[in-house]
Amino acid sequence: MIELISPTRCTGCNICVSVCPMDVFQPTGGGRAEGAAPVIARQSDCQTCFLCEAHCPDDALYVAPDAETVTGITEEAVAAAGLFGSYRRAIGWTAAHRENRSADQTFRLLAPH
Amino acid sequence: MANVPGAPVSSSAASLDLETDVLILGGGPAGTWAAIAAATGGARTILADKGFCGTSGATAASGTTLWYVDPDPAKRAAAKASREGLGGHLADHGWMDRVLDRTHAAVGQLADWGYPFPRDADGRERRVSVQGPEYMRLMRRRVKQAGVTILDHCPALELLVDDSGAVAGAVGLQRQKGGRWTVRAKAVVIATGGCAFLSKALGCNVLTGDGLLMAAEAGADLSGMEFSNAYAIAPAFGSVTKTLLYQWASFTRADGEAIPGAASKGGRSVIARVLTTEPVYARLDRAEPELWAAMRQAQPNFFLPFDRAGIDPFTQRFPVTLRLEGTVRGTGGLRLVDGTCATAVPGLFAAGDAATREPICGGFTGGGSHNAAWAMSTGHWAGLGAADHARALGVRALGNGTRTLRRAGGAGLQDRPRGGHGAAVDAGTLTRAVQAEVFPYDLNYFRTEEGLTGSLGRLDRLWADAAGAMPASADTVLRVREAAAMLATARWMYRSALARTESRGMHRRIDHAALDPAQRHLLTVGGLDEVHVSTRPAPVRADPVRLDRAEAGRELAA
Ligand SMILES: Cc1cc2nc3c(=O)[nH]c(=O)nc-3n(C[C@H](O)[C@H](O)[C@H](O)COP(=O)(O)OP(=O)(O)OC[C@H]3O[C@@H](n4cnc5c(N)ncnc54)[C@H](O)[C@@H]3O)c2cc1C
Ligand code: SF4
Ligand code: SF4
């Protein structure tokens, strides 16, 4: 489930508000102009799809793998484990990892047809 | 906002009022391919998604393998034959050929548009799979470039029909902007995906069968709804229901004892049986370490739960569960009446998981490829079909004076003349009641006449209550409609399952464990207050000599 938005990393672009398929986030008054982070307004609606993380340009969100429960993990713990932005790097959506976009090895795992 | 039965549409009630040639409901693969085809053919096109076109739906979160087969006759024949038996010999060779051709073209198009397909050691581009976020981000871009108007966070609630009964648009909510939307259209494509009953399977909680309910309210029927019990393996704590890599798993009890026969393919039912009484653990210890890196690169999302929970899935055991994916990786859905993906109702088309996939895989899908190919192909044809239909209607009538439109929606939306009992439906309570009938392996994975009859009695009573209830308030109507759609879907599933007194495809009857050659037919199901099932002949076999005899006595695989 979505666990946190880091107020220090977030720039208030509100992309997560738009892209979350479950409409979990709510923009706050300030928005991008003031760099204000949106809030996690409907946490229990989260479907643990990790797509807000994939689309956040500032690696400011963390989705815990637990689908049913809130873990309460802290920003420090996420940062210490190097998990901020880890999905974006894996799919090649950061400048430094672009080669991962075309790294899909599924063809090696499928029986030939 | 209550509407009395058949109330005409008043434009003042909606906060956004648009007119178009083609309206697409749903923006996953099927909806985006449909939108591009319609708009490229010159039709004015609007696409409305419950969530966000580009992240919403099963593919965006999951990624898929593709039924991408070179147009070499031997390879094509093998591809078609490989699923015949598993699908219960219900697929149609003509449809398979068309879908193989169309998928090959569509995937080529993706490459031309810049999808970053990987290359193998020989430098050859490999096009057998797509990563969900990448694929659907590209599709959104192409939809916009085609000139389509996208309405994000705009779930459709009900269809509009004209006085001849033809579908003429839809009404929905603007979830983030507030208020309603009304789109009058000459043709509508239902591409709302399948129904996974809010099981939290990966990317599936937007998929509550809404389009099936809306279409049925306008008079469409469905097919193959007995093939609706796809369950997928996931770590017990998580949402990632990706199953490909479990072919390298061993499955054990809490004490570490191996579970005989348990496997992702061909032994998933064994896992289900054990899970009814005790936890099951998995470990990907059949994968050689040389393959580990490739597995990570193939499915980055598969590893998210493990990396974040601090589990090494290759060396450490973790508890697993089976989450219901319902019709998402089942094959049931709206019945198509021709190759343009028209439904039984004029002006209404269907594509992707919202349409029955029996034509290409009969009663079984799961393990990949066909669903994605079906979504690409039927999306394209439905978009073209809808655009042609709109063109044929011409300038005649979009409801502005010449055509009176009425709302087709029922449960949760309108007072019905049956002495409504005053209370509105509580979406949470109804959802949990439906889940209690469709989640348990005893009821849905392992079906019996007794179990199905008991469930149907309870589901029918829930339907009578929901259909007679007061309309939902503006802030609950989406959830109420979703609950009603799941309820309707569950009733079509179980009525069909009761009617098929054999085991075929993924439909498994404990009291009729064998395949019955006399039931090589398709089941049409429809209706809301009264659900009715009828049979239609299965497609003519390409090779009538290879009869089902070999299958007849066999306990079904998987
Ligand atoms: C974990 C997982 C793995 C899979 N792997 C494979 C695979 O390897 N190979 C394969 O072929 N298939 C696979 N599938 C199946 C494949 O993802 C689907 O067949 C495919 O996504 C269907 O596309 P679609 O466009 O019909 O539906 P979806 O992609 O589910 O999109 C449906 C869209 O409709 C929208 N919607 C829903 N209700 C409404 C409403 N009321 N109003 C407006 N919009 C609405 C949703 O928000 C969503 O955007 C997998 C599925 C899952 C869950
Ligand atoms: S997408 Fe990231 S940076 Fe933008 S508002 Fe959301 S959390 Fe903040
Ligand atoms: S994980 Fe998915 S559902 Fe949850 S907040 Fe992020 S985008 Fe929304």
UniProtKB/TrEMBL annotation, chain A:
Keywords: 4Fe-4S, Iron, Iron-sulfur, Metal-binding. InterPro entries: 4Fe4S_Fe-S-bd, 4Fe4S_Fe_S_CS, Fe-S_Ferredoxin. This is 4Fe-4S dicluster domain-containing protein. Residues 1-30, 36-66 form the 4Fe-4S ferredoxin-type domain. The lineage of its organism: Bacteria, Pseudomonadati, Pseudomonadota, Alphaproteobacteria, Rhodospirillales. The keyword Secreted does not apply. The keyword Metal-binding applies. PROSITE patterns: 4FE4S_FER_1, 4FE4S_FER_2.
UniProtKB/TrEMBL annotation, chain B:
Residues 443-517 form the Fumarate reductase/succinate dehydrogenase flavoprotein-like C-terminal domain. The keyword Oxidoreductase applies. This is FAD-binding protein. PANTHER family: SUCCINATE DEHYDROGENASE 2 FLAVOPROTEIN SUBUNIT (PTHR11632), SUCCINATE DEHYDROGENASE [UBIQUINONE] FLAVOPROTEIN SUBUNIT, MITOCHONDRIAL (PTHR11632:SF51). Gene3D superfamilies: FAD/NAD(P)-binding domain, Fumarate reductase/succinate dehydrogenase flavoprotein-like, C-terminal domain. Keywords: Flavoprotein, Oxidoreductase. SUPFAM superfamilies: FAD/NAD(P)-binding domain (SSF51905), Succinate dehydrogenase/fumarate reductase flavoprotein C-terminal domain (SSF46977). Residues 21-227 form the FAD-dependent oxidoreductase 2 FAD-binding domain.
